[in-house]
Amino acid sequence: METMPATHDAPVADLSYEQARDELVRVVGELEQGAETLERSLELWERGEALARRCEEWLIGARARLDAARSGASAEGSDSTR
Fold this sequence. Notes:
- The chain is an all-alpha fold.
- Helix content is 73%, strand content 0%.
- Helix 1 (17-33) packs antiparallel against helix 2.
- It starts with 16 loop residues before the first helix and ends with a helix.
């Protein structure tokens, strides 16, 4: 069985979408179970916020790429009708 690399110590900016999403799920689960201290809860919350922003960045980038591809396809379609 392939193991996933631990990402909880990695800088959020270095994470792929999938890594950030998976860690966010783990963080939310840990928060829902209740952390042992308020300090740990705050650390988890802050990490979760950063992970959520990272996921959003990836999704915005993916949407921009799709829009660019669609625009390119539309332009090519228009050029071929001339």
